[in-house]
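Q: Sequence in, structure out?
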Amino acid sequence: MSAVTQLDEPYVDKVPVYDARELTQDGDLARIKLSDQVYTLRITRTGKLILTK
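A: Exactly. Output:
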């Protein structure tokens, strides 16, 4: 899975960009782990993102 996407200017500041559809494998949920915490990334029906602990 290549979730990093290249964007045109002005996003050439070396910050990675991830496609939410790839992170969720074309679903609407993904789990993201940071240290010992697990977060849920949800894509809503209206196409917005919600990140919860």
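The radius of gyration is 13 Å.
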